Amino acid sequence: MSRGLFVVFEGIDGCGKSTQARRVARDRDARFVFEPGDTPVGIDLRRWILDAATPMTPATEALLLLADRAHHVHSVIEPALASGRSVVADRFYASTLAYQGYGRGVDLDELRAATDLAIGDCRPDLTVLIDLAPNLALEREARDESDRFEIADARFHDRVRQGYLELAGEDVDGWFVVDGAPSVREVAAVIDQRLAELPW
Predict the structure, then answer these.
(1) pTM score, whole prediction
(2) Fewer Cβ within 10 Å of end Cβ, the chain: N or C?
(3) Which tens digit of pLDDT belongs to each residue from 25-38?
(4) Contact at 8 Å (CB) between 131 and 177?
């Protein structure tokens, strides 16, 4: 039995990645997954991670996200891929590099090493980055004042966006950058054209 495809959608909050990830999974009969919080263990971790009222260092934030990811890979993603089912994810390891590395200032080399421990050989076949300026994302989606990431200042979100673009530039074959400014339908058409090249 051949291994399933693993496609990940990334981008800043409000860019439209969740909408596109769910659509792609539905249209291709793939398993939709998300991070953080897609397992019973992850539900508790997600509550702690996102709660703006809970003080947390950037390193603690990163390690909790990595714990969620390690459990997610082991209990959900890898079993699905091994069974031949394709998986479409709303966020994966690049989110931690972008948000906690570029955004919070956690050492990128240390994050990459910890990521290797968390996910092993589980790597996306393609990462779709929906790129959108933070001010446009904010116009589309009101910020949740209880979410520690959504209430971060504009400079933080600018660093995250630039981090994503740097990561994409380091692996042009493994990433596909899409302009998130057009309509949902227009963005979907661009994404589908690229996904049609994959062996679903």
Answers:
(1) 0.95
(2) N
(3) 999 999 999 999 99
(4) yes
Number of Cβ within a 10 Å radius of residue 199: 7
Other Cβ atoms less than 10 A from the Cβ of 93: the count is 27
Contact 34, 187 (CB under 8 A): no
Distance of alpha carbon 78 from alpha carbon 87, whole angstroms: 9
- The whole-angstrom separation of Cα 189 and Cα 200 is 17
> Domain spanning 6-195 has what CATH number?
3.40.50.300
Number of other CB atoms surrounding residue 165 within 10 Å: 16
Identify the DSSP state of 183.
-
Kindly state the average pLDDT of the residues 104-126: 98
Instruction: Considering only CA atoms, give the Rg of the chain.
Output: 16
Using an 8 Å Cβ cutoff, are 31 and 3 in contact?
Answer: no
pLDDT tens digits, residue range 46-103? 999 999 998 999 999 999 999 999 999 999 999 999 999 999 999 999 999 999 999 9
Q: What is the DSSP string of 29-78?
A: TPEEEESS--SHHHHHHHHHHHBTTS---HHHHHHHHHHHHHHHIIIIIH
